[in-house]
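Lab notebook, bench 4. Still working through the backlog of constructs that have no structural model yet. Next entry is a single chain of 120 residues. Request: give me the structure tokens for it.
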Amino acid sequence: MDRITKPRVVKDYDKLPTDTQTQIKIQYPFGFADNLVTYTNSKGEIVSALPFEAEEFYYLVRMTRDEAYEIIENDDDYDDDGTLRDDFVMEGLEDTEEEVEEIEDVADEDDEEDEEDDDY
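Model written out:
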């Protein structure tokens, strides 16, 4: 099995750039809840997250099963059944490289703390 050599990033869904959220929606058109994984963070806590491999990073997007359902329920890109709409517009995918650079260079105070706390 190949070992992931990309930088690993643990983030909350709402803190991700729009283009990354768009890519996640495309990879998970039927919602997130059934695709969550669990791991133990550096504090010994069991955390659930959605795995997502982008071109530059390997993400674990922190969310509980309830949060996964809530995100889909409140997202207009998903229909009432929790499926990505056929007329979904893929916005911002052209600017992916520029926004990824922003993630590397600029981190919230919370994000820096989260990344240290959520090693996997």
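Notes after review: The chain has one domain: 8-113. The CA atoms of residues 18 and 92 lie 7 Å apart. Flag for follow-up if needed.
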